[in-house]
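Changelog entry

Holo records now carry the ligand SMILES as an explicit input line rather than a separate metadata file. Below, a converted record for zinc ion, shown in the new format.
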Amino acid sequence: MKCPKCGSENVNVQVVNEIQLKNQHHSIIWWLFIGCWWVPIKWIFLTLPAFIVKLFGHKKKKIKNITHSKAVCQSCGYTWNV
Ligand SMILES: [Zn+2]
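Structure line, unchanged by the conversion:
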């Protein structure tokens, strides 16, 4: 393998663990204990703004680990995905 930056053959390939955020939906338990009363209250007091926030606002994120190979040039330190 050759380095795309400097052309050196001295390239080390390693497995990298990458953390990615994934959307998480509310559980059934959440809807039974909180959602059934919290959502109508939110609608009564915030109505449309709450709807807009729900549509375009930030959602709860779940951390997901993804492993993939990464090449590291030993000569110039350049890294890229394999
Ligand atoms: Zn290089």
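Spot-checked after migration. The chain has a mean pLDDT of 80. The chain has two domains: 1-24+59-82, 26-58.
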